[in-house]
Please model this.
Amino acid sequence: MNTPTPNDSGDLALLYGSDKKMLRKALVERRQSMADHQERSQWLQRVIRAWLVERGDETIGAYWPIKGEFDPLPALYRWQEAGRETDAVEAIVNRRIGLPVVDKAHGTLRFHVWYPGCPMEEDAYGIPKPKGTDTFEPTLLFVPCVGYGPGGYRLGYGGGFYDKTLAALTPRPFTVGLGFANAFLPDLEPEPHDVPLDAILNENGLVWPLPGSNAWTP
Model:
């Protein structure tokens, strides 16, 4: 059997069909082996920083990158620093970045304040998380995408943590998927419980909603 070319997510979906476990594995392996990973990441950093200019959020939830995921933290730290430059008195307190910590009892995520150099420890999955910092509920949530498809639907790792978390948060934060352009799956079929993201960004810019769509209001 021929291996699909690295830029052909559609071929990967055709190859594995409804076997999402194998599709996830193939997408992650390709992401980890991208020769231009650094260049794509630099462009996505720029996209996020430009996109955030029009937002009024003061609390953003993000994630610690694993398995070749895009790292949003440098762009978010610049966002936080820009707030300090704009308002040296208030923004230091107002703009907060959070990383997820799993609540095992409920299968949801709690967001703990993160800053460069803050105390960290590994969770049960070996992923670094803030240690002993305050929790908060973000108004904007950046979500990593293994893959993503039309309509703002995301292919994750299958644990359901984000779906359960979003169902529990009131009000629901604005959700933004982050992924590289070659993770787009044109024929991705959402599960009945899947909730579409409010927006998706890749290194080329805004992927969802499409230009002219009324599905998103900044």
